[in-house]
Every structure is written in structure tokens, then in C-alpha cells.
Amino acid sequence: MKNYCNVTDPGMEDKANGSVDTKSPVENGQLPDPANWGVADVVNYFKATGFEEQATAFQDQEIDGKSLLLMTRNDVLTGLSIKLGPALKIYEYHVKPLQTQHLKSNAS
């Protein structure tokens, strides 16, 4: 099981404004490569980041880390059958940054 700690994202609103706190799995001070995540890791990541209800969509669609890294904005907005607001936040604040991190770490 991955260790979770708080990571503050200045682009995220607080819960009083309708958004969620941001938490990320951290190993040795860095996020682990999502390409190595199983379905349960993806589900646990989204539960830990405040998307408890939406995390089940990733389970239902059997989205593992490799699949997560291949997802487009349209996949998240329409393919997971979740409400638009949470889907936008999931893509912009989580999926896209995880994809960027993966590309940077594999470019070196």
C-alpha cells in the first residue's frame, strides 16, 4: 500500500469553495511512476485525493496506471460516466499532471 501525504496545489480551491484537498502518494519524496500502478492503486489515489465517489468509475472501467496515462480529456469527461465538475478537476489537477510527470521522468 502506498503512503499518502498532503501536497498543496495553489490551483485547487478549498472544500468550502466546492473543491477538494489535494493528496498524492509519495515514495522517497517523489510520486511513484503511475505506469506501475494497478487498478487498486489508481482507485486508492483518487480516493485519497478526495474523489471517493468518482474512484469507483476507475474500478468499474478497470483503469490501471498505464491506461490512466493514455487517457485524453474526452475519455475522462465522457468515458467514465461521472459528473462534469469532478471530471474536469480529475483531468486538470490529476490526470494531466501525472501524464506530464511520467513523460518528464522517462525523457531523462
TrEMBL record:
GO terms for cellular component: nucleus. Residues 37-85 form the SAM domain. PROSITE patterns: SAM_DOMAIN. Residues 1-35 are annotated as: Disordered. CDD domains: SAM_Atherin-like. GO terms for molecular function: chromatin binding; histone binding. One of its GO terms (biological process) is negative regulation of DNA-templated transcription. InterPro entries: PcG_chromatin_remod_factors, SAM, SAM/pointed_sf. Gene3D superfamilies: Transcription Factor, Ets-1. This is SAM domain-containing protein. It comes from Perca flavescens.
